[in-house]
Amino acid sequence: MSGSVDAAFIAGLKKVQSLTVQVHKEISRLIGDLRPALLDTLGLVPAVRQHAEARLEPLGVEVSVETRGVVKRLPSNVEVALFRFAQGAIGNIARHSRAKHATIVFEFHDKELAISVRDDGIGFDVSKITDVEESGRGRGLFSMRERIGFLDGTGWVESQPGAGTTVSARVPIGRD
Q1: Residue 127 gets which letter from DSSP?
Q2: CA dihedral over 71, 85, 171, 162, signed as positive or negative
């Protein structure tokens, strides 16, 4: 009898160990979602570039990233929000656009940063996305605008069917 108890106990321990590993991986993923490690190691522009290339190039989308002005590190909350904004736009390109090219432009000014993410995909009628629908349609654009709003910035979308899409934002980064 002690052999079967030991075997059951060992099987239970192995299950607990496996679950512990899974929980650890999930916690690590969630922590990474809060603040992507790429931001700490690379900074905003290289982190966005690396994310865009990793997400879009396997789909056949050529990625270019441009910077204007003097690139500088920004407060953590600003970098995270701008990374998430770009991540949302990149995700939309991957899921919806059927684009062949995507261009991300960062414009650093003394008191603000402008970012635009442009694709040459199928585009859409912006007037038909006025709010988040029950199906979830529009949720990504809403979240992107909300992130920028938290920074006292502005965000907007320009698109037309057959003419690609540009998602842009401006956020304050300097002191008045």
Answers
A1: G
A2: positive
Residue type, 22: Q
Residue 93 and residue 144 in contact, taking contact as beta carbons nearer than 8 Å: no
Nearest alpha-carbon partner for 142 in 127, 158, 129:
129
pLDDT above 90: residue 111: yes
3-state secondary structure of 67: strand
**How far apart are alpha carbons 71 and 48 in whole angstroms?**
13
Same structural domain, 22 and 77:
no
> Does residue 75 sit within a domain?
yes
The upper half-sphere exposure of residue 18, i.e. CA atoms within 13 Å in the direction of its Cβ, equals 6
Q: Kindly state whether residue 39 falls inside one of the protein's structural domains.
A: no
Structure-token pair, residue 105: 């432009």
pLDDT digits (tens, 9 = 90+) for 135-150: 555 556 777 888 898 8
- Give yes or no: residues 77 and 100 share one domain: yes
Radius of gyration of the chain from its Cα atoms, rounded to whole angstroms: 21
Q: If pLDDT is split at 50, 70 and 90, which confidence band does 23 have?
A: confident
Say if residue 51 is in the same domain as residue 137. Answer: yes
Beta-bridge mates of residue 102: 63, 119
**Judging by beta carbons within 10 Å of its beta carbon (0-12, 13-18, 19+), is residue 156 exposed, middle or buried?**
middle
